[in-house]
Each structure stands twice: as structure tokens, then as C-alpha cells.
Amino acid sequence: MLQDNKTIKKIEEFLNKTFSYDNNNTNEKYIYGIIDILERIADTLRFEYSYTKTNISLEDFINSKILIDKNHLKVSCSKYGNVLGSGTPSISFQPQLLYFLLLNHKKEYRVLDIIHLFIKKVKPSLTILDFKKTETGAIRCYTNTRFAANTLRDYGLLKFTKKEAYKTWVLSLPGLIVASELKNEKSTWQIDKYDIKHNGFQIHHIIREAWDKIKKYDDFISFLFSICKPEAILFPTHKEIIDTAYEYLGKYWSIMNNANISNAERIKLSVEMIKKLEALPNMDNFIMNCLII
């Protein structure tokens, strides 16, 4: 039903004819107010009748038949269960989330703001199933974005300090490399949830394959120049840290792609390599003064 835009338009027209309210916010679309008020009416009725659960699933409603005749709206629901699937998996959000964090790194968004703005960017790739509310009231795609960030952080693609862990999400050097590659390739916000070349890995294959394009030293240096400030002097000033970082990053991606160890072991070894990378003398200084972040 909800894949049919004509039906949606008819519902909107029906509500406009049979429903009215005083709109004090002239900048807001009228339909937004109707949606909000209908939701509050439903909340009030749920409270009055102590009816907190929902017996009509989103999947059943999507497949229902809606008939509109003048001032009457009829809905016929059937039981479909979860045959429509569970929306976009969290792993599919990972590359675009890194890309979003790169493009917005200076804005100091909190986690909830990041999720909200990120979902607005990728919404054309999502379906109504991604906006299904769980039993706890959380929206599925919001929860899956958090899952995506947690996994990226587990593997060291996002920083994990007290500041970043609780308030915002910040790219680590490997995360910056992946996001910068996506930017250089003029990545879009299109998410392909049917791209399932993961083979048991918890990290999206686009991220795991990012090092392949710059694993040769000369390619790595060329890429580094592309993400450095024009005034940055890399050689000989930072040669030692660049060479060591190149070695550690190669090992890091080898660990992340090692199919002969478990996910738990990959996480453990990845984090150990990231700690070695971040502990390099003057690494923070190199990132802050040389890279375009």
C-alpha cells in the first residue's frame, strides 16, 4: 500500500478535508501538524485505555488495503508477519557514516544530531521498514546507525576516548583515510543494502578494501598529499612518522581482512595496532597540523 504514492496523496487529501487545526508555525507544512496531532490523539487514547502495545505490525499495515470514499476511510489489514524483511542492516551504513563524519567534522555535533542529520542524507535509500519503531520506542534506522558506529569504534575506525565515546563520533586516522577516499571518489549517499559481500566480516567490504588502492608506498604518499594542507611540509619533516604509520596501517588492514581468525580476535588485534599508531611520537601534531580535518 505505502509504495503507492497515489494512495498516500489520497490519504493526505482526506485528512486535509476532514481535519483542521490552528497552525501557529507558518513555516511548517500543514501536514506536519496533522501528523503530530494524530500521534498525540493516539497517545491520549492509549493512556485512557491502558493500551501500550501495537497489535497491527508495520508490515501488516504496509500490505493493507485502504479505500477512501468521500468522508470515509476503510483499512483492511492482513497478517504478513516479517516477510518484508527487517530494513537496511547496520553494516550497510558504515561507509556513508564515515563519509558524513568527514564532511561535518568541524561542526561538533552530538551523537543524536549526527544520527538525525545522517538519516536525512541517506533517506532516499531507505524504506518505511527502516523507520519501524521497536518495542522500546526506538526507530530502527537510528538504532542501526548506532550499531554501525559501535562496530566502527570497536575496530578503531572511530576514536574511543571518554570525550568521544559518550558525546560524539570522531574519525581515527584509518577512518579518515576511508572517508577521504570516498570523498575523492565523489561518493554519493546511496546505500545498497543488497551489497552483501561481507562473508562473516563485521566491517563493510568497501572499508576493508580501501587500503588496496594505496598499499603501494608511492600511492600512499600521493594519497597523503591529497588530504594534506597545501602548506604542509611532509618531507623530510615528517618522514619517520609517515613511514612508520604506513607500516602500521598496512598491518591494520591485514588484520581487518584476515579470514582465518574470529571477529573477536580481529577486534582485539585491530585495537592493539591502532594504539601503537596513535602512540607514535608527534602523531597528534602531524594529524592536526598537516591533514585537512
Question: In sequence order, what are the helices and strands, one letter per element?
Answer: HHHEEHHHHHHHHHH
Going across the biggest sheet, name each strand in turn: 1-2
- Mean pLDDT, rounded to whole units? 85
Q: Pairing-aware structural class of the strands and helices?
A: mainly alpha
Count the helices. How many? 13
The portion of residues forming beta strands comes to under 5%
- Low-confidence runs: none
Largest sheet at a glance? Answer: 2 strands, antiparallel
What share of the residues lie within helices? Answer: 40-55%
Shape: elongated
Cα separation of the termini: 45 Å
Summarize the structure.
With 293 residues, the chain is mostly helical.
How is this structure best described in words?
The radius of gyration is 24 Å and the shape is elongated. The protein contains 13 helices and two strands. The protein has helices at 5-18, 30-48, 58-62, 94-103, 111-122, 140-154, 162-167, 173-184, 205-208, 217-226, 239-256, 263-278, 283-290; strands spanning 65-69, 72-76. It folds into two domains: 5-76, no CATH class; 90-290, no CATH class. The mean pLDDT is 85. Strand 1 and strand 2 (72-76) form a beta hairpin. By secondary structure, the protein is mainly α. A two-stranded antiparallel sheet has the order 1-2. Helix 4 crosses helix 8 (173-184) and helix 11 packs antiparallel against helix 12.
